[in-house]
Amino acid sequence: MSLSSPLRGGLIGCGYVSQHHLEGWKTVPGASIVALCDLDPERLERAGQLIPAKAYRDAADLFRHGDLDFVELCTRPESHRELVELAARHGVHVLCQKPSALVRSDLLAMIASCASASVRLMIHENWRFRPWYRALKRELEAGTIGRPIRLRLTHRDTRALRPDGFRDQPYFATMPRLILLEMGCHLVDTARYLLGEVETVSATLGRFGAGQVGEDLATLSLGYTSGALGLLDMTWCASADVARSEWALNETAVEGSEGLLKLQTDGSLLRVGLDGTTDRRSVPLKPDDQVYVDGYAQTQAHFIEGLLQGISHETSGTDNLKTMDVVWAGYTSAEEGRKVRILPPAGLTSSPH
After folding, report:
1. Among candidates 91, 77, 85, 95, which has minimal Cα distance to 24?
2. Is 106 in the same domain as 151?
3. 250 inside domain
């Protein structure tokens, strides 16, 4: 399918997180959001104040009459398969909010439906597109610390201990699988982006907050195919003094055979040599009030660039299957009390990148 700029897009799901997606689209070249869809008229109205666009209450009606090149899904994961298959039937490319699916069979069906319709499926994993992780990846590829030995990545928040912690996304409180699914997919995707594919997973989960049914703490020990190790530590029961702001600028360090690279609170990278000497690598950032949304915009820009220029998407559906396999293996590990080996993805239908 030949596409030309500007591409016409729609956004389905105008809940809390959609505000960041819509702000991001305002800055993305080559694309315009021309349609919004949500079951709730009040949410539709609020979204329309950010980007004036034609409003739809029904997704099927949107695809019949929207004349779209692409759609971004900002709905809950249990709705993703039905909406992706609907988009594929109408020949519309899909950028899908994470987590892509609750179960593997749904993600496989999403990949297959897009492959059979020759449309793209990309998952909105925006952490890897943030400037500090792009810079860290470049430093690792340049051999700045030699051979990577271990990655440490930590996410800390207080929401499970606050009475209003789930106010913005109340459905979180009802999810039986929570922090590892909702936040862990970000950490796993970033871990894969930085150090490569994961071979084994050992996980421990816990629930300590009183306001939700799912786990609010998860620790994953990863074994990479390269031989490197990874430690992913995520909690929504942190104390306020260590909780990080919504920059997705989480504690990150990579230890290597020739030194350490560590993310700083201003987005820069600190290199520590084996002899203890240090030097800081600056990372250009947007102004403070734009940094968070910029991660969304960079992800969306990558999606549009791929459509217009035929470039492979880094977080395609098939790539995201590798991320989600690690997440699902984490649940298996915690439930069965054992290390789980990640098998090569099976059951895939080849799809556009």
Report:
1. 95
2. no
3. yes
